[in-house]
């Protein structure tokens, strides 16, 4: 089913606000162009998107979705990303003024009350990026390697009786812009992922301890 285009700022309910948690982390990755690895089986995103949502109606019921808007194909050349061609102007908007149906991830806690969504950050840690186009699980979204994407969160409000749910807020997350890859291209991205990922830090410490034990000891 097609989703009507909202106003120019993609928002007809200006009171609702979405802010990304861990702004410092996202700024660091955005400065070097974030990369996410996509695999056939699906790979979780790190850093994962966590959103702080305000000004929902506490007693109303909402579904929360995330999708990925394609922004063109890129190439890694001379240690920088270069755009090869743009797809943003044709991929998502049709001539009749409707948005093409993108693959969406419906948050696993949907539907839920507005008070629930506002109490804690809304985490999309279960979302996986896959290169597969068929037989997807509900938590997978297909991406094309070497293409740029901008995540977008959409909030649907449930209506009374049998009325259709209403899209009350749609917001892109520019700081979470990323390029899908099958292996990291930029060494700075790898460094940041190790720096901010406690699991990667623990793995690195364990590896270093193991490596030190394997070194031959030099007798005095």
UniProtKB/TrEMBL annotation:
Main location: nucleus
SUPFAM superfamilies hit by this protein: p53-like transcription factors
Record key words, sorted: DNA-binding, Nucleus, Transcription, Transcription regulation
Compartments (UniProt record): Nucleus
GO molecular function: DNA-binding transcription factor activity, RNA polymerase II-specific; RNA polymerase II cis-regulatory region sequence-specific DNA binding
Record GO biological process: cell fate specification; positive regulation of DNA-templated transcription
Superkingdom in the source lineage: Eukaryota
Domain T-box: 20-205
InterPro entries tied to this protein: p53-like_TF_DNA-bd_sf, T-box_DNA-bd, T-box_sf, TF_T-box
Record's GO cellular component terms: chromatin; nucleus
Protein name, per record: T-box domain-containing protein
The organism's taxonomic lineage, starting at the top: Eukaryota, Metazoa, Spiralia, Gnathifera, Rotifera
């Amino acid at each position: 089913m097609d989703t009507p285009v909202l106003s120019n700022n993609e928002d007809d309910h200006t009171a609702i606000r979405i802010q990304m948690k861990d702004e410092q982390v996202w700024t660091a990755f955005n400065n070097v162009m974030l990369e996410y690895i996509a695999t056939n089986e699906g790979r979780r995103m790190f850093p994962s998107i966590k959103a702080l949502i305000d000004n929902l109606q506490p007693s109303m019921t909402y579904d929360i979705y995330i999708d990925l808007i394609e922004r063109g194909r890129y190439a890694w050349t001379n240690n920088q990303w270069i755009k090869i061609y743009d797809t943003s102007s044709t991929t998502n908007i049709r001539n009749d003024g409707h948005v093409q149906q993108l693959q969406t991830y419906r948050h696993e806690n949907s539907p839920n009350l507005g008070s629930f969504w506002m109490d804690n950050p809304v985490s999309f840690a279960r979302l996986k990026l896959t290169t597969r186009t068929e037989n997807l699980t509900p938590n997978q979204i297909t991406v094309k390697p070497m293409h740029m994407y901008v995540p977008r969160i959409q909030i649907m409000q449930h209506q009374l009786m049998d009325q259709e749910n209403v899209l009350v807020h749609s917001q892109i997350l520019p700081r979470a812009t990323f390029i899908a890859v099958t292996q990291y291209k930029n060494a700075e991205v790898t460094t940041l992922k190790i720096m901010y990922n406690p699991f990667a830090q623990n793995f690195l410490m364990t590896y270093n301890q193991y490596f030190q034990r394997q070194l031959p000891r030099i007798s005095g």
